Amino acid sequence: MSDLHREGGFPDTAPYAALWGCAAESLLGRSAAPPDEPRDWKIASDRGCGCEHCAELRAFCDDPDAKVARFPLREELRRHLEMIIRTRRLDIATVTERKGRPYTLVCTKNRAGHRRRLAEYAEDVSHMESLVRSAPGGAQAARWAADLARLREAVAAHKPAERGRA
């Protein structure tokens, strides 16, 4: 949008304003406010493959208080659970404890998804700042004034949080 905004007269056109409006609505829909801190350790998970081990993993994911689970399993079953965790992008770190038989897959919940969402939010705020600078002009400005105001509010709301982390 910044590049298009620099084009003479283009920011005053309806096509530019429509494109700007779509970008604004998308960013505001996703990042008008920072992501909430997780309230518990529950992890959203799907059905997996349906085996008993995936059912145990799902029960662990659904438990809001459990942070660590131990799965004493044969190697191929440990690999299966690790593959499910990896392909479903579950916020779980795994390590194999190599004492006793069978070895134990130790699963520890983490906040990786929340950290990814915070990074996306910060990037979205940067894009919102760019949209504020490249808002439609001329007759198109009035049509998008409400979205421009919401963008400015979202950017301003991010600034105190950003200073608090510094």
Description:
This protein has 2 domains: 2-37 and 114-165, no CATH class; 52-110. Helices cover 57% and strands 10% of the residues. The protein has 7 helices and 3 strands. The chain has a 3-stranded antiparallel beta sheet, with helices on one face. Helix 2 (14-31) runs antiparallel to helix 5 (112-133). The relative contact order is 0.19. The mean pLDDT is 89.
Features:
166 residues; mainly alpha; 7 helices
Compact description:
It is built from 7 helices and 3 strands.
How is this fold's topology laid out?
Elements: H1 2-6, H2 14-31, H3 52-62, E1 68-72, H4 75-87, E2 92-97, E3 104-109, H5 112-133, H6 140-143, H7 145-165
Antiparallel strand pairs: 1-3, 2-3
Helix pairs in contact: 2-5, 2-7, 5-7
Strand order, largest beta sheet: 1-3-2
Helix content range: 55-70%
Alpha-carbon distance between the termini? 29 Å
Poorly predicted runs of 5 or more residues:
none
Mean pLDDT: 89
Number of helices: 7
Total number of strands: 3
Largest sheet entry? 3 strands, antiparallel
- Taken as a percent bin, the fraction of beta residues is 5-15%
Give, in order, the helices and strands. Answer: HHHEHEEHHH
Query: What would you report as the Rg, rounded to the nearest angstrom?
Result: 23 Å
Structural category is mainly alpha
| Total separate domains | 2
Instruction: Please state the overall shape, judged from the principal axes of the Cα atoms.
Output: elongated
